[in-house]
Amino acid sequence: MIMKNKKFFLLPILFVSLFLGSCSDDDVEEVVDRIRTIDDIPVSETASVDYLPINIFEIPIETDVNLRQALEDETGTDETIEQVEEIQLDDLDITLVSADDQENFDFVNSVTLGVRTDDLEYMEIAHLDEVPSGQTMIELSTTDEYVDDYAKSESLKLVVQFESVEDANNLEIRLDMEFDAKVNPSL
């Protein structure tokens, strides 16, 4: 008789623990379901400079970029930027559009790309240490840096730095980028 009472006593505890265990799994699933990953958000910008001298210090060329608008275009809502948990550069190609005295990127040894804002310091997000010869389009290796705070700024700038071995006049380049973002609508 005592054995039967112990079984009945343990049975409610078992049901309660199963119920609580399943609720926490559902809660986790709900949070995961709310977080949306957006891959390959396209952003293209052009940058130009009248004169890029031979340099060993990587003279910067800056251009504005509006990641806020790119995210809005991708999701169809202007609230997305405030819901971003993580955003990072996934892919970057730089194309030589024109230069008065250059046909390809042979005038460049290396390239870095960074971001900055009026309030945040420069942060490198991509680089190419040795530019292959004869190329009019180069692909940079991206870092694992997240640019969430930068993307939320209205003063976001891309900073391209070339280490050049020859002068370039009236240089124009196009930056074709793809960003990946995690968005949480509950924020």
Question: Mind explaining what this structure looks like?
Answer:
This protein is α+β, with helices and mostly antiparallel strands and 187 residues long. It has helices spanning 2-34, 67-75, 80-83, 148-151; strands at residues 36-52, 59-64, 84-98, 108-116, 123-128, 137-142, 157-164, 168-183. It has an eight-stranded antiparallel sheet. The model is unreliable at 25-33 (pLDDT under 50).
Tell me the layout of helices and strands.
Blueprint: H1 2-34, E1 36-52, E2 59-64, H2 67-75, H3 80-83, E3 84-98, E4 108-116, E5 123-128, E6 137-142, H4 148-151, E7 157-164, E8 168-183
Antiparallel strand pairs: 1-8, 2-7, 3-6, 3-8, 4-5, 4-7, 5-6
The biggest beta sheet reads: 8 strands, antiparallel
Structural class from helices and strands? alpha+beta
Give the SSE order as H and E letters: HEEHHEEEEHEE
Count of DSSP strands: 8
Task: State Rg.
Answer: 25 Å
| Fraction of residues in H or I helices | 25-40%
Note poorly predicted spans. 25-33
Write down the overall geometry. elongated
Distance between the termini: 56 Å
Number of DSSP helical runs: 4
- Order of adjacent strands in the largest pleated sheet: 1-8-3-6-5-4-7-2
Q: How much beta, percentage-wise?
A: 35-45%
Mean pLDDT: 83
Features:
8 strands, alpha+beta, 187 residues, eight-stranded antiparallel sheet
Question: TL;DR of this structure?
Answer:
This protein has 4 helices and 8 strands; from the N terminus they run αββααββββαββ. The chain has about 190 residues and is α+β, with helices and mostly antiparallel strands.
